[in-house]
């Protein structure tokens, strides 16, 4: 998540931390921002919660690679670079 936030900052994109604590000191680290298409984005990392967490990867809503079909779908197993390349 740090790499994503640093990339957003370097690109001049405003973001905010919307992280939450679930219980027992576990939680979801969440970064929210508006991408270059004007879409509101939420990227999370949560141990045992997000897709790809066990490999240190991020989950995004809306999806990065699903050709403009969003619905209620999320996309996991993303690197910060995947997100930066698609949306900055």
Name the average pLDDT.
Answer: 90
Oligomeric state of shown chains: single chain
In DSSP terms (H or I, runs of 4 or more residues), the helix count works out at 2
Largest sheet: 6 strands, antiparallel
**Helix proportion:** 10-25%
Number of strands: 6
Radius of gyration: 12 Å
Strand content: 35-45%
Which blocks of ≥5 consecutive residues have pLDDT under 50? none
Structural class of the helix and strand makeup? alpha+beta
The outline comes out as globular
The SSE string, one letter per element, is HEEEEEEH
Short description:
The chain is an alpha+beta fold. The chain has helices spanning 2-10, 80-87; strands at 15-17, 20-23, 26-34, 40-46, 58-61, 75-78. It is globular.
Supply the key terms:
alpha+beta, six-stranded antiparallel β-sheet, 2 helices, 19% helix
Compile the SSE list and pairings.
Layout lengths: L1 H9 L4 E3 L2 E4 L2 E9 L5 E7 L11 E4 L13 E4 L1 H8 L1
Antiparallel strand pairs: 1-3, 2-3, 3-4, 4-5, 5-6
Protein model, in words:
With 88 residues, the protein is of the alpha+beta class. The protein is 19% helix and 35% strand. α1 (2-10) packs parallel to α2 (80-87).
């Amino acid at each position: 998540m740090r790499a994503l936030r640093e990339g957003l900052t370097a690109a001049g994109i405003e973001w905010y931390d919307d992280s939450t604590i679930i219980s027992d000191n576990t939680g979801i680290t969440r970064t929210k921002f508006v991408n270059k298409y004007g879409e509101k984005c939420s990227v999370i990392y949560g141990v045992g919660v997000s897709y790809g967490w066990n490999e240190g990867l991020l989950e995004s809503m809306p999806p990065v690679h699903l050709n403009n079909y969003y619905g209620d779908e999320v996309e996991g197993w993303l690197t910060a670079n995947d997100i930066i390349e698609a949306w900055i």
